[in-house]
Amino acid sequence: MNKTSANFKSSLHPKPNVLISCRGKNGEDNALAVAYCGNCSYDPPMLMVGIVPSRYSYQMIKDSGCFVVNLCTKENKELFDYMGSNSGRDGNKFEATGAAVREAVKIDAPVLDDCPVNIECKIVDSIMTGSHEMFIGKIEHVHAKEDIVNKDADIDFGAMDVL
Question: I want to staple 117 with a disulfide (CB 3.0 to 4.6 A). Which of 31, 71, 85, 131 is the partner?
Fold first, then answer.
């Protein structure tokens, strides 16, 4: 098998792509597309998200100490693409997209109701890794569409077509 050198940046692509929703100290809601997201502990349940400090939502998340991870399916691709290619600096992305939003249960942040899974997190730690700050969030509550949750309350990821 012939091999060649490849770019470091493209060597591993985290999955799934998610939308992170948050609320600023002034009550402003926003969301951004994030590719760096994954589990980092099962006991206690925690996950991490990587956010570039220049992003509009970065300071909101840092100040509020919480965020919601919204899993996107192919049905949410238009919403994901808009949130990932427009900045909250330029206007309200929720109004522009007509996104269905409701309040989180355990934290002060919006939940993107059109996404099949929403994971509410409180920040317990963070680390600058270079281009991104990795926020470690303790999972406080998980919302999931009824038709993708089995009898043991586990999410059936095979029932979703995640981005």
Answer: 71
